[in-house]
Task: structure prediction
Amino acid sequence: MAADTSMKHALHYAMYYAVIAFAGFVVLSFMFQNPLGNSGLLISWVIILFICLAQKSYRDNVLGGSITYGQAFKVGMATVFFSAFLYNVLIFFYLKMLRPELVENFRNYTMTEMEKMKDLNIMSDKLMDSMISQSEYLSAYSITQGDMFNKILGGFVIVLITSAIYKKDNSIFTPKE
Result:
C-alpha cells in the first residue's frame, strides 16, 4: 500500500509547487523585464519547502511515523521530478502563447552579459564566440529544458539532505505508547 501512495504524495505536493512557482514567475514577468534571469532565483527556494512537506507527510500519515532513507529519497526525488516537469510545462506554454517577448528579452540579456565577459578575457575568444553563437538559438523549449535540468540537479542535492533529516526508524527497542 505504501508504494502506491508515495507517488500520489509526490504528485500532490509537486502540483502545489508548480502552481505557486508559476504564479511567482508570472508576477516577476510583470515586475521585472527578465524573470528568466537572476530574478527567477527568488522563487527557486520554494521547492525545498514542498520536498520537506512531501517527505514528512508521507512519513507521518502513510507510514505511521517511520521512514527509511530510501523511502524518503524516493518520495523526495519523485516530488522534484514532478515539480520540475509541471512547472516547466506551465512556463513553456506561457512563453509560447502569452509572453513570447520574454524569450527575446532573455536572449538579448544573455548576449549582453556574454559580451561583457568577452571584454574581461576570462575565456578564449573561440569559446566565447561559440557561446555567443549558441545563445542566438535560445528558444522557449531550450530555456525550459535547461531550467528543468537545473531543478532536478539542485533537487537531487536537497533530497540527499532532507532524506537524512526526515529518516526515522522505529526500533524494536522504542517503547510503544
User: Anything to note?
Assistant: Helices lie at 2-31, 46-62, 69-98, 101-120, 125-135, 140-166.
